[in-house]
Amino acid sequence: MVGLATSIALFPLLVSNPYYLNVANIIGLNAIIVVGLTLLIGYAGQVSLGHAAFYGLGAYISAVLTVSHGFNPWLALILAALITSLIAVIIGIPTLKLQGHYLVMATLGFNLIANIIIVQWDSVTGGPSGFPGIPPLKIGSLSFDSDGKMYFLIWSVLFVVVLLALNLANSRVGRGLKALHAGESAANCVGIPTSAYKVKMFVFSAVLASLAGSLYAHYLSFVSPKTFDIFFSVELVTMVIVGGMGSIWGGLFGTGFLTSLPNILHYVDEYKDIFYGLILVLILIFVPEGLLVSASSRLRSKRNPGENHGRGYDAPTQRPENCLSCNCVPHYPFECLDLDIMLREPILRVHNVSRGFGGVLAVSEVSFDIPEGSITALIGPNGAGKTTIINVISGVNRSHHGHILFAKRRIDCLRPYEIARMGLTRTFQNVQVFDNMTVLENVMVGMHPKTNSEFLISMMRPPSFTKEEKEIRDRSMESLIFLNLEQSANSPARELSFGDQKRLEIARAIVSDPRLVLLDEPVAGLNMTESFEIADLILAMRSRGMSVLLVEHDINVVMRISDKVVVLNYGTKIADGTPQEVQNDRDVLNAYLGGVL
Amino acid sequence: MVDHLPQFIIAGLTTGSIYALIALGFCIIHNSTGIVNFTQVDFVSLGGLMMYTLLLGLGLPLILAFILAVMAVTATGALVERLAIRPARSRAVIILIFITIGTSILMRGVFKVLWGKNQMGLPHFSGEDPITLLGATLLPQNLWIFLITFLAVGSLQFFFGRTRMGKAMRAVSFNRRAAALMGINVNLIVLLSFALSGALGAVAGIIIVPITTLSYEIGVMLGLKGFAAAVLGGYGNSLGAVLGGLTLGVLESLGAGLISSAYKDVIAFGILLLVLFVKPNGLLGYGDSERL
């Protein structure tokens, strides 16, 4: 690392040819944009083909303010960044609601529009022929008017940007972005304000592009619209991908490679595009994980074969004494259930909730309470509306009618992440682990509602950040130990077995010490031993003070551990009471056994 | 201005037909693979360029040149799938999309070497004597464009609705794995979808070039508009592609005629963005809802 830094610092002294310095400067400028795009695309998973427009905005605002209005270049640079961030907010809020190809098209459309405006508005921008005579940046008597001086400025800025980006990537926010990439709804339910994160990341990357644009304008003293067209946007994203999408270093490598490639291919003049396209296609076909990522993982696996999880948390091998989970098959006699629980104050009240999809009413006027500190089960045949109830409580679907009180506050108008912040978490019927992260990181995401470091703090890393990060790590490790997953802490979550992924979801849901956990079919698809282990865990969760709403088909588990059972059929509640009461209820027997008895 | 309204609409429907054909090509490949195939734009250019060579270079009769040009681009489409998409080690959508972008750069590089950078032209199919209809002046080429687009869309409808192969392609678009398990050769379907998109792109290029000019990158802007049209209609929906194409063409033409020709694309894309903000899955699209 130090070697790399010194060689970058000494580069202008070793190279006298200004042509190479110029290429190095352009690489530096592109890299500033690509770092932001790597975070936006590789981490947050939002592809933008509009960043050349932000680059152009920075360049043109700086040019117009300094030349036409006599602003100080530094002030112009800051104003350009501010104006660009404002535009990015206005564009980003509606645009980032779109997904996939629609997002690509919308950002592309924005870039086209911005470019046409630059070309056509020639009274201000100089039109298609460009805008000349932009003054260089100055500090006191030092004027950045040569390739060499600009080299130091651009690369110093890049250095700071990379540092901030690396900090952000390895932080609470970075994990939140990756989670939202892996599954937006799931991330939202875990407590990540997904829309706000997408917009913030978009704005940050736009500001970096604007900064690079301003530097570009003052460096070349001339800007023309061609530099900022959609093809440059495409090229920028290509740089992110070719180096390795999920890594900042990969993006930097891709930038260096693709920016210098046309200069190398200069010698085959006429065939330049053919070679450029061919090299690009070959890399993407054969090294889709990215050049740098591929090279580094190959190097690492050579160094220590059989272990490629990188550095991570050292899993403690000794289990703590007070661990509540054990591996024996337990028995739960009805007698030991605490019947007083039924009389306690409810932690959650579902009142008259209805929810339809299209013309079908999935849930109709359902009401029930979950007593604080209880395990309440929600059962019913397939299609009875159980998952819909969970989705409505957790805010994934809005109820069309009725209301929901959690800890005496209405939550039916809140979004999933706000509900998670109040201490209500959930797991999913179709397992939703974040498969782009390690097991430990998955659980760390679960600490999101309980922690506070946002974008700026994560980038600056004050002592409070380090302290919080340590707490997140420790608590997450405890949660993994609680679920018997500590051995896999540093493995990629996608490599876990189905049963372990289900446990991981529970670990993630309980790490923030929520007051109520919604478990959507936690034992479906598991064998008997595994089911009993989970049942054991649910009991342990209750003794830790959590209330549980359990949706489950496995009647054995439900009847053994629940304090209260609510039965749904065809979207309406047909029974509600202790396990014994429900088991003897005529309507329940009819629903389950079709009235044969 | 308003007197020219029929004229603007005719012009809009003409370019709109082209966008619709290109959008259909985007949709077919999206449905079989889930990706955006950016070589679609070069299929359009190549159609025009092949027509130029066959018709003016080799002096073949119009119909023969038309058929051979379409066949050549169809084969190119299949080749793109075979050489660039199938060998790809990653099935990630974004990687595949950027493979098509790389291939597009490569193809344009080849076109530039083979046909040069100059502007070229093609003769109209059947003369340039204008016809007056409902207060608008039409060229015979406009009629050819409407007719051929209509035939192309009609035969696609028939293909997807009535033929075994067409139904297999629809099955793959709904569920690739299930289709494979039902004995459908998914690789063949993907190959076919590239060939079919090649044919559609070629047709679009061949019929529009006589009223525009021809160059090695003529398809780029047309292709992007075709992509926009597909998104506007609801990506992957073929009826939406046609509707999106015609809407975009008319909007652009009205924008150019009634407001400002310099800002016509700003108007067209601005409206596209507004539509997406209100209907995030396009005019006729339904979103994929995540199942939790």
Number of continuous helical runs of chain B:
11
Helix content of chain B: over 70%
Assign an overall shape of chain B: globular
**Order of neighbouring strands in the sheet with most strands of chain A:** 8-9-10-5-11-12
Seen as an oligomer or otherwise, the chain set is heterodimer
Mean of all residue-level pLDDT scores of chain B: 91
Q: Of all protein chain pairs, which has the greatest interface, and how many residues does each chain bring to it?
A: A-B, 57 and 47 residues
Number of domains of chain A: 2
Strand sequence of the main sheet of chain B, in spatial order?
1-2
Largest sheet of chain A: 6 strands, mixed
Number of strands of chain A: 12
Tally the helices of chain A: 24
Classification by helices and strands of chain B: mainly alpha
Mean pLDDT of chain A comes to: 88
| CATH homology superfamily name of the largest domain in chain A | P-loop containing nucleotide triphosphate hydrolases
Query: Which percent band covers the strand fraction of chain B?
Result: under 5%
Shape of chain A: elongated
User: Tell me, what is the CATH class of the largest domain in chain A?
Assistant: Alpha Beta
